[in-house]
Amino acid sequence: MPSDAVLYQAAALCLTYPDDDFRARLPLLREAAPQLREFTDHAAVTPAMELAAHYVRVFDFKNRHSLYLSWWRDGDTRRRGMSLVRFKDVYRAHGLEFSGEELPDFLPAVLEFAARTGDTSLLTEHRGALEELRTRLTAFGTPYACVLDAVCATLPTVHTGARS
User: Fold this and answer.
1) Does some domain include residue 38?
2) Which of 41, 51, 71, 94 could form a disulfide with 66 if both were Cys (CB 3.0 to 4.6 A apart)?
């Protein structure tokens, strides 16, 4: 796997709910993706319940830190349905059928897709959303911001409109 693929897979794991499997993988994540060490080091020393509560506080209460990429462009509108179909179409074009519990635009799913296929088109297409999320996570003061910093550093600069 090229280094970006490893980073994308590691970032996908870091941006999912920090369960016991995540904690067990922390040493591997730390070694495989040094770009994420600020986050993985924080996660390693933070008690499990505290890390889980922080994840919920950051990502689950408001859309200000939404991990659903189409939300940044479409919000909760009918247009978002077509955007979700587009994500599924891109997955299918690579022989993958999206069957996750989350929506197909869930950032960890998109990162895992990029890691598996090398296709970063969905990340690049939603670069504006990633930048907005990164900015908001940084302002919020969460270590999750460094995960977005690392992902954004791999992508070409593209200016697209994100919702505020």
Assistant:
1) yes
2) 71
**Three-class SS state of 154:** coil
For the stretch 117-125, contacts whose Cβ atoms lie closer than 8 Å and that sit 24 or more positions apart, written own/partner, are 118/2, 118/5, 119/90, 119/94, 120/4, 120/154, 120/155, 121/90, 122/69, 122/87, 122/90, 123/151, 123/155, 124/155, 124/156, 124/158, 125/158, 125/160
Assess whether pLDDT exceeds 50 at residue 160.
no
**Is-above-0.85 flag for pTM?**
yes
pLDDT single digits (tens) 68-115: 998 888 777 778 888 888 999 999 999 998 877 888 999 999 999 999
